[in-house]
Amino acid sequence: MKQKAISAATRPRLGKWLVSGPPLAYLLLFFAIPSLIMVLASFRTPGEFGGLAPLFEEGRLDLNLDSYARFFSESIYAQIFAKSVWYALSTTLFCLALAYPLAALIAKSERRYRDLLLLLVILPFWSNFLIRVYAWMIILGPNAALARTVNGMLAWFGHEPVPLLFSSFAVLVCLVYVHLPFMVLPLYANLEKHDQALLDAAQDLGANAWQRFWRITFPLSLPGVYAGAALVFIPALGIFAIPDILGGPEDSLIGNVIKQQFLETRDWPFGSVLSIVLTVAALFLAGLAAWVARGNLGTPSSVKVARA
Amino acid sequence: MALLEIQNVTRRFGDFIAVDNVSIGIEAGEFFTLLGPSGCGKTTLLRMIAGFDLPDGGRVLLNGEDLAGRPPERRPMRMVFQSYALFPHMTVEGNVAFPLQMAKTPAAEIGAKIAAALEDVRLQGFGKRYPHELSGGQKQRVALGRALVTHPAVLLLDEPLAALDAKLREEMQIELINLQKEVGITFVYVTHDQTEALALSHRIAVMNKGRVEQLDAPSKIYGFPRTRFVADFIGQCNLFSGPVAASGNGLVTVDVPALGPVRVAADSRLAPGRPATIALRPEKIRIEATAPVDTPDNHYRGTVADLLYMGDVTMYRVATPGGMRVEALLANSQSGRAKFFEAGDAVEMSWSVDAGHFIEE
Q: How many CB pairs under 8 A join A and B?
């Protein structure tokens, strides 16, 4: 009897390992080990002609904190970091403002139209990311209708023409465009599950449309908001292709600097330090979002009784 | 003038008439029930009273004022939903405070009002809990407390006990009766459960296909169903149809095929030959193993075709020689034995002239 119970418990465990083994091995080989190599590289000395200096110099191990010291002593990197956080934050907020009404509209629409609307949201993924970014070069280009209209109106008011392309504006517009579906989908998944009876009850208890949204719909959608924010903020923080293609010289973000360190300056240790700082920052923010989403913040404030 | 007046209210969904020219007056302090099978229009009618739906014709008046232009949030009525509809992200206190906050109650008064409401529904000490930490009965009480905290003129209840198990439902029924007495607020209650309706209400409107079939006190609804539908829907009922054979001296005799002549006390004279239907509750029928010693008004022979033992009572289906099935209910407490008869036993049925009554066809 007892033996039977044990074998019944072990068999699914073995099956579990067989199923999860290949992806685990994949992650170990192509994610964990490279990450460890990067951590190790961050403590090494850059080679004379790029790459890394030998690990053993004259019989002793050459590991140091020089690259970390450099990151914390030269303020330009902190500034670029702050700018990257600012861009990522702005992208997240714009995405939220645009995605919320859209997700709510899809969630409220008739069931037979929902799949179509969702398909439209994910349709951009069918074309390559870089092609979509290059498309914005054409849309925002100086000879395109958009730039002409804007500058024509500016000229009418007596302003100098402004370039739309190769600007912070272009970078932000494209960041929002690229990340919008990542905000829409988790928001939709959340809003779609909302119970109409709760809104009926709120209305019956005296809440107008505005109060129903802020007291019921929005607080209940917070898990979706946090999930969407994490999915937008973290990739936006490390992005380099969009500032490279659409930004001006002032729009270099942390992702561009990292790419530069590895491919142009060939200072691998410093590039590793920047990557590690970025990863730690992203992990910290993702952890914070998950913690908040689990209801440790946010919900109690909307529950406090004496407040109103 | 009644507190809540429903005047000629009609609601159509395409070709389907959900509520068909219904007029009801509900008095202040009354426990009023809309009873009927699903699809009879009772919930649609309730939602029109609450303001979630608007009538295609007719009016809803509260204290003589037409509510047509008022959305639900501006009607002095509260609804208790079948699913409770508690706000999951708020505590019990937060839920009960919600209508007070919407009504802009001064913050200083909110605490005391919440405490009073939670006391009314016997939930003291549960204020800090979240809905998912409560049982079904407790959730229902929070919903009641939340609806009553602002002292609405009318409380609308949409099958509030349907999700509870039988034992708890009975308990909550008694609590509802006491609560309604205590707060003195008019309750409009929707249910498809006839025993619940009979137990709770001062008056019941039995609805069928969008119309009110009968509006009466529970004892009248049960004892004197006016139509075939009401007789059938509320409890068990024998319906005997046939032409009138004789009429006079407060007595009408109907020739029921497969049974025989049935005599019923009736004030009105019915023309002989006219078709008539008699409703007779199974518990009004006496069945015995031997012929009754007195001379009853109605007396027939039969055999027990089948029976349903239900613990406290047994329902016998007695077949007459003509082939009719008559349902008779006997309390099992009347004998030391668990039940009186077995299937196949020959029995004598009898009932008095005032046991049955005529229904409209």
A: 79
